[in-house]
Design goal:
The protein is of the alpha/beta class. It has a domain of 175 residues: Rossmann fold (3-Layer(aba) Sandwich). Helices cover 33% and strands 29% of the residues. The strands form 3 sheets. It has a 7-stranded mixed β-sheet, sandwiched between helices. β4 and β5 form a beta hairpin. α5 runs parallel beside α6. The two termini are 26 Å apart.
Length: 254
């Protein structure tokens, strides 16, 4: 059981941005992809999730041995894939509760929950995340602060319980208190069998969500991989010392 990328290439509007990424995320592992702005990190996440604007040019992406590139985004979700967006959309008129119940039952068609059953599940998850129950009655992301939007994404993650979660710059725009709340939410999920891929520009979220594996992406390629210590090295030295890996095409182990 793995989320596996093999030489994945993808782009947008005819421009290739992801230029051959290979990566394996096993259940229970936390991987982080770091890199400067414009390196292709978000393009990679959208391509995996099946965003229609982002086209896969070559390579493979599989979940538990099944090709997901031929699947519609909702089918990928049913196979256990989840993407937390960097900029979640607002949906006025649709409550958080109704949205989450619809999403849950769409993913779990074989065992849908009734309104009372889902209410009990949602209450349990919100309690675990320290969220007020009134949050569920608000319209989805409508008028939410940046921190509230990200907490809503984490609530979705808690409710849907995917096999593999991709967090696309979840720390973007958050102050330190909101960042801690989001990180605590991810850590409190407590699923030892969920693979997590954190995409971030900064090291700061990795102070609270500890990765077992850190990869550096520059100009569409992973140029270095290592443990948590690599993120500290990046915070100290930046990315310039790794840019030679783009030119020589060699992936460094750091």
């Amino acid at each position: 059981m793995v989320l596996e990328l093999k030489n994945l290439r993808a782009g947008i509007d005819g421009k290739e941005i992801v230029k051959g990424v290979s990566l394996t995320v096993k259940p229970g592992e936390v991987h982080a992809i770091m890199g400067p702005n414009g390196s292709g990190k978000s393009t990679l996440s959208y391509a995996i999730a099946g965003h229609p604007r982002y086209k896969v040019i070559g390579g493979k992406a599989q979940i538990d041995g099944k090709d997901i590139l031929s699947m519609a985004p909702d089918v990928r979700a049913k196979h256990g894939l989840f993407l937390a967006f960097q900029y979640p959309s607002s949906v006025p008129g649709v409550t958080v509760r109704d949205f989450l119940r619809t999403a849950y039952n769409a993913v779990h068609k074989e065992k849908p929950l009734s309104v009372p059953e889902f209410a009990a599940l949602l209450k349990q998850k919100m309690s675990a995340l320290g969220m007020d129950e009134s949050f569920a009655s608000r319209y989805l992301n409508d008028g939410f602060s940046g921190g509230e939007k990200k907490r809503c994404e984490i609530l979705q993650l808690a409710v849907l319980q995917p096999k593999y979660a991709i967090l696309d710059e979840t720390d973007s725009g958050l102050d330190i208190d909101a960042l801690k709340v989001v990180a605590e939410g991810v850590n409190s999920l407590g699923r030892v069998d969920m693979g997590v891929l954190i995409i971030t520009h900064y090291q700061r979220i990795l102070r609270y969500i500890k990765p077992g594996f850190v990869h550096v992406m520059i100009e569409g390629k992973i140029v270095a991989s290592g443990g948590e210590e690599l993120s500290h090295k990046l915070e100290e030295k930046g990315y310039d010392w790794l840019k030679g890996g783009v030119a020589d095409g060699k992936r460094k182990e750091a």
